[in-house]
């Protein structure tokens, strides 16, 4: 990632962000408790958040990323309260990628501009990112007309330019065909190998087996399990997780 | 209809020969309405975007008032500005009544609510789509505004053109604050009303044709711009 790292941007090596620690984190909306007492400690590697629909996976991710504020409990990045400089070292890719109504290239130069990259460097960096994610020939195409897989790769290319220490991915492959899923997984691998912490939600058990270093399992707003991936799939601790791994979603 | 036919032919002659009286009226009309729309856009677009972006006590009331003022009758707007600018009014000392500046002010009062209210709706819809992603980039509300205004530019161009349509077509406000003074504050709509009353159908019809042509040109330009932008943006 060093070739695209922005000058002056703090990096994990000199100023570690991890571990991410949640203590007693809860979230309620309009009197409804959606997450209860989450205690969690995330270190480096690829964390997959799993659980049935409505378990609170996306919500947990939004709380970690700072898009929502917990109604109880605390979140700490290496002991520090979330703050704007720490938020700038994170990126998030959504289930339905939110792309600006501009060309693919302009979507990338936009993030470079808002992060203060000098104008003369933007185009070259954006084109390098498009090439890295196999989108070079689509540079001038309007982002909204790209296919689902292309849009998701563009969202990943955009996140790449942000050179995040932590990347959140909210079910990034849920609506994609197998080829597009493979491309997204390769992109996630790029991030992982460049030292970016991955936190990702998925419903896809096979994908979780391929990608996960550790698994966080949620059900009905409660954290039931956080364990290394091998142990989670071989011998899940909770009956709900065991049913989930067998493909029998608990309700 | 020999009178109408004759008037129509004379009207066309006035246009084709670039009659100085007609040209002066058209020039002043464009000057007043374009100035009013420019000022209304400069205030109304950020105002609409701010209303979409920030929540504050009384925001709902502001939105309702703006929406209601979209239908403000031009004569009422004219009367309000007249009372402000008349000798006894709070701004009477400026001596602006019966000047093109007064007409610009009256038209700004008419156009501003349209631009602000409609841009708020468009920006709010786009914000619903963009909010999480822009927040994820670390942008605060103030820094989201230029992005939203730029990405909603096609819809906002239509909004500004709707404002221009309102400004160029109204009679009541400019008549009250401008006074329809020949060569000074006479614009197309007030001239059409006056010349029709005086039976000078040729000039009235000529001005009417120019006004129609102008509106058609503006709409064609908006359509072409919109199509181009849609092709670029998908």
UniProtKB/TrEMBL annotation, chain A:
Transmembrane segments: none annotated. It comes from the Bacteria. Residues 20-245 form the ABC transporter domain. Pfam families: ABC_tran. GO terms for cellular component: plasma membrane. Keywords: ATP-binding, Cell membrane, Membrane, Nucleotide-binding, Transport. GO terms for molecular function: ATP binding; ATP hydrolysis activity. Belongs to the ABC transporter superfamily. This is Amino acid ABC transporter ATP-binding protein, PAAT family.
Automatic annotation (TrEMBL), chain B:
Its main location: membrane. It comes from Franzmannia pantelleriensis. The lineage of its organism: Bacteria, Pseudomonadati, Pseudomonadota, Gammaproteobacteria, Oceanospirillales. This is Tungstate transport system permease protein. The chain crosses the membrane at residues 33-56, 63-85, 97-118, 154-181, 201-225. The keyword Transferase does not apply. One of its GO terms (biological process) is transmembrane transport. Keywords: Membrane, Transmembrane, Transmembrane helix. It is found in: Cell membrane. GO terms for cellular component: plasma membrane. SUPFAM superfamilies: MetI-like. NCBIfam families: ABC_perm1. It is a multi-pass membrane protein. The keyword Nucleotide-binding does not apply. Residues 26-222 form the ABC transmembrane type-1 domain. Gene3D superfamilies: MetI-like.
């Amino acid at each position: 990632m060093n070739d695209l790292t922005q000058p002056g941007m703090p990096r994990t090596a000199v100023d570690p962000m991890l571990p991410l620690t949640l203590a007693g984190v809860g979230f309620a909306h309009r009197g409804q408790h959606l997450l209860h007492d989450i205690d969690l400690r995330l270190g480096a590697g690829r964390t997959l958040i799993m659980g049935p629909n409505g378990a609170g996976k996306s919500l947990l991710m939004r709380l970690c990323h700072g898009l929502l504020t917990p109604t109880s409990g605390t979140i700490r990045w290496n002991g520090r309260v979330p703050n704007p400089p720490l938020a700038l070292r994170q990126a998030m890719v959504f289930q339905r990628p939110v792309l600006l109504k501009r060309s693919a290239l302009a979507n990338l130069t936009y993030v470079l501009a808002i992060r203060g990259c000098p104008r003369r460097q933007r185009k070259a960096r954006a084109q390098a990112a498009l090439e890295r994610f196999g989108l070079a020939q689509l540079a001038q195409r309007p982002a909204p007309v790209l296919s689902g897989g292309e849009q998701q790769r563009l969202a990943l290319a955009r996140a790449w330019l942000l050179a995040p220490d932590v990347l959140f991915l909210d079910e990034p492959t849920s609506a994609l065909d197998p080829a597009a899923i493979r491309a997204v997984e390769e992109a996630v691998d790029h991030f992982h190998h460049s030292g970016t912490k991955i936190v990702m939600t998925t419903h896809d058990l096979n994908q979780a087996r391929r990608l996960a270093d550790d698994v966080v399992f949620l059900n009905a707003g409660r954290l039931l399990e956080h364990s290394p991936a091998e142990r989670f799939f071989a011998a899940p601790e909770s009956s709900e997780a065991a049913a989930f791994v067998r493909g029998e979603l608990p309700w | 209809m020999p009178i109408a036919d004759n008037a129509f032919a004379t009207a066309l002659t006035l246009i084709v020969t670039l009659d100085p009286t007609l040209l002066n009226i058209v020039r002043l009309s464009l000057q007043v309405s374009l100035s009013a729309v420019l000022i209304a856009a400069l205030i109304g677009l950020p105002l609409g975007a701010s209303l979409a972006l920030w929540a504050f006590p009384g925001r709902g009331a502001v939105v309702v008032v703006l929406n209601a003022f979209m239908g403000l009758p031009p004569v009422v707007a004219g009367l309000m500005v007249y009372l402000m600018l008349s000798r006894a009014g709070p701004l009477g000392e400026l001596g602006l009544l019966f000047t093109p500046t007064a007409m610009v002010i009256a038209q700004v009062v008419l156009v501003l609510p349209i631009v602000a209210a409609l841009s708020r709706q468009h920006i709010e819809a786009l914000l619903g789509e963009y909010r999480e992603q822009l927040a994820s980039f670390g942008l605060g509300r103030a820094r989201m505004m230029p992005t939203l205004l730029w990405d909603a530019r096609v819809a906002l161009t239509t909004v500004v053109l709707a404002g221009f349509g309102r400004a160029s077509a109204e009679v009541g406000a400019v008549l009250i604050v401008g006074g329809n003074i020949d060569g000074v504050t006479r614009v197309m709509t007030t001239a059409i009303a006056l010349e029709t009353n005086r039976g000078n159908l040729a000039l009235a019809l000529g001005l009417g044709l120019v006004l129609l042509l102008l509106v058609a040109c503006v709409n064609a330009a908006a359509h072409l711009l919109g199509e181009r932008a849609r092709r670029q943006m998908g």
